[in-house]
Amino acid sequence: MSYHNPYTPPRKSATFDDYTLAEIRRAAATGIYDIRGAGTKRKVPHFDDLLFLGASISRYPLEGYREKCDTTVILGSRFAKKPITLKTPITIAGMSFGALSGNAKEALGRGATIAGTSTTTGDGGMTDEERGHSQTLVYQYLPSRYGMNPKDLRRADAIEVVVGQGAKPGGGGMLLGQKISDRVANMRNLPKGIDQRSACRHPDWTGPDDLEIKILELREITDWEKPIYVKVGGARPYYDTALAVKAGADVVVLDGMQGGTAATQDVFIENVGMPTLACIRPAVQALQDLGMHRKVQLIISGGVRSGADVAKALALGADAVAIGTAALVAIGDNDPHWEEEYQKLGTTAGAYDDWHEGKDPAGITTQDPELMKRLDPIAAGRRLANYLKVMTLEAQTIARACGKNHLHNLEPEDLVALTLEASAMAQVPLAGTNWIPGKGGF
Amino acid sequence: MDISVNRESLEAMRVFDLATMPLRELNSALHAIAPGTNDTNFEVVNPRGSHAVAVGIDQPVSVDVRGSVGYYCAGMNDGGTVTVHGSAGPGVAENMMSGTVVIEGDASQYAGATGRGGLLVIKGNAASRCGISMKGIDIVVHGSIGHMSAFMGQSGHLVVLGDAGDALGDSLYEAKLFVRGEVKSLGADCIEKELRPEHLEKLAELLEKAGVKDVKPTEFKRYGSARKLYNFNIDNAEAY
């Protein structure tokens, strides 16, 4: 008797999916791990998994366009003689000149200034362009100390001691030789064309007790004028926040794993650190336990894209947020306008992440003079300002719907979660229930 | 140790007693110096291990600290002359831009870390990571230095009259290291290099500036970067 075997479609492994197989082949062919920019690309519980409840019989809303909803935020009120006041709680995260072109840094400064917020230097020092175009500029104090000097400390509006970042808590960085122009090399006191390692630890302090003395030194150098931020990656948010407060920080910046980097190993980006959503409540809890909530301000970053994300971060207890990747997109990163050139680089608009190679068609993550010219800093700054204003309006819209006359009045009670994971992380009830996993005994 | 006050200069000297005055008063006075002023001599007594003494100087002032200091003394010094008549805690003269810092005693970890210019003289010994990430500073240590010194040193000179600990010059860039005594071990990518006439000349200059007598530049060996780790290569991964 003949037997006909019916057709069965080929089945690919969920464990060994196409991307995983390609990665194995790539590693075997090149002998090196994949380096890339940006933050995690894996799906993690995020602000999308939260919803606002809005007003109801027991909560009345505020009238859009008529009743005021304040967005002002003051940062650095704990110790600094000159705290900074921003019109919107959306700040621009630290990104270096070197990783970004001079025009891109100028665009970020221009956009932030129009919108009434701050921008931040990065691992490479402060340029005159970004100081000149940024009304409020935060100066990062990094392990590499590239470009660090007391004059720039004094002309900054705030100082951010960087302990870690969300894309790579515990990791340093590497600016590859191809992005080291004469100017970048000069700012970093290194020869042109060699890989520039950014250290993972500070050279002259380790641990919270040393950090307290380091902060004292920075305050003394700047005559106690500048707010001092401490930035950490999303690793141990409760303890890192508590220790930063103990060390004397005015502001804690907490960056989750969706936060971008100019370049690091893909394996690091995808496997080290916690999602932003999981970081906020422990950090806020630490501030509350110390009686420092709203006295030491908390800035959350990592995957903030819209006014809804801003409102959710603030409702969970943050004082402000910072955006990096989203700001780059606003000024032109990964724009489909350059699709043909992205294709030539073996990628597509929206997926381009080889920021370390210096070939960015949009002229943002490059030091190539011809590519840099593609970014008009004035027009790009305007786009960023528009985007910041839209996000602010969106956050206000939601806050008014929740009956809040200041974004800071949003609270966890305004939120529910769509998934068990988000409910547990954000510590707000699963929608339609009064259940928060891990609370109330089960 | 001589801790007597120079009587001739006493009138022109402003004395800050840290036993009775807050640190803020000292640093604030140092920062308030206007360019070109004559009132530039300061003395600090009873430092008692205070941190951040005489930090952020940006004028050519002279500060004599009578006793030992804690962390970050003379941090980010830009043009001042700071003499510690005692020992210094971690990070002395960190990120110095220009000027001179002299430690009559010993220095703890990270002396001269990330310094970009000026001269740091340590008359005793320096602990680990002396000159870490140095970016142009010149450091002269009369005694010996600890492990991992000049780690990732980018530029400048480190001169050691005594011995160096383990992993000297690990991951070194372009800083030049001169050691007169024994080097316990060299770090990744650090090698002994030829001592050429221009190095002897520079050494003689630094020794003179640091008040070193009866020591010849030819007594030193020079160490520098092999430059093999300058651009990442997977075949060098075992070196890290």
Q: Could you give a quick summary of the protein structure above?
A:
Chain A is of the alpha/beta class. Chain A has helices at 18-30, 102-115, 128-133, 150-155, 182-187, 207-221, 237-246, 266-271, 276-289, 307-315, 325-331, 339-344, 369-372, 377-401, 420-426; strands at 35-36, 50-52, 73-75, 84-86, 90-92, 118-120, 136-141, 158-162, 173-175, 196-198, 228-233, 251-255, 264-265, 297-301, 320-323, 415-417.
Structural summary, described in words:
The complex is a heterodimer of chains A (442) and B (240). Chain A is an alpha/beta fold and 442 residues long. Chain A is 33% helix and 13% strand. Chain A is built from 15 helices and 16 strands. Chain A has helices at 18-30, 102-115, 128-133, 150-155, 182-187, 207-221, 237-246, 266-271, 276-289, 307-315, 325-331, 339-344, 369-372, 377-401, 420-426, and strands at residues 35-36, 50-52, 73-75, 84-86, 90-92, 118-120, 136-141, 158-162, 173-175, 196-198, 228-233, 251-255, 264-265, 297-301, 320-323, 415-417. Chain A has an 8-stranded parallel β-sheet. In chain A, strands 1-13 form a two-stranded antiparallel ribbon. In chain A, α7 (237-246) packs across α9 (276-289). The radius of gyration of chain A is 23 Å and the shape is globular. With 240 residues, chain B is mostly beta strands. Chain B has one domain: Glutamate synthase, alpha subunit, C-terminal domain (Pectate Lyase C-like), CATH 2.160.20.60. Chain B is 9% helix and 24% strand. The longest helix of chain B has 13 residues, at 197-209. The model of chain B has no long low-confidence stretch (mean pLDDT 93). The interface between A and B is large, with 35 and 43 residues.
Detail the topology: elements first, then pairings.
The complex is a heterodimer of chains A (442) and B (240).
Chain A: H1 18-30, E1 35-36, E2 50-52, E3 73-75, E4 84-86, E5 90-92, H2 102-115, E6 118-120, H3 128-133, E7 136-141, H4 150-155, E8 158-162, E9 173-175, H5 182-187, E10 196-198, H6 207-221, E11 228-233, H7 237-246, E12 251-255, E13 264-265, H8 266-271, H9 276-289, E14 297-301, H10 307-315, E15 320-323, H11 325-331, H12 339-344, H13 369-372, H14 377-401, E16 415-417, H15 420-426
Parallel strand pairs in A: 5-15, 6-7, 7-8, 8-11, 11-12, 12-14, 14-15
Antiparallel strand pairs in A: 1-13, 2-16, 3-4, 9-10
Helix pairs in contact in A: 2-14, 7-9, 9-15, 10-14, 11-14
Chain B: E1 13-17, H1 23-31, E2 41-45, E3 62-66, E4 78-84, E5 98-103, E6 119-122, E7 135-141, E8 155-160, E9 176-179, E10 190-193, H2 197-209, E11 221-225
Parallel strand pairs in B: 1-2, 2-3, 3-4, 4-5, 5-6, 6-7, 7-8, 8-9
Antiparallel strand pairs in B: 9-11, 10-11
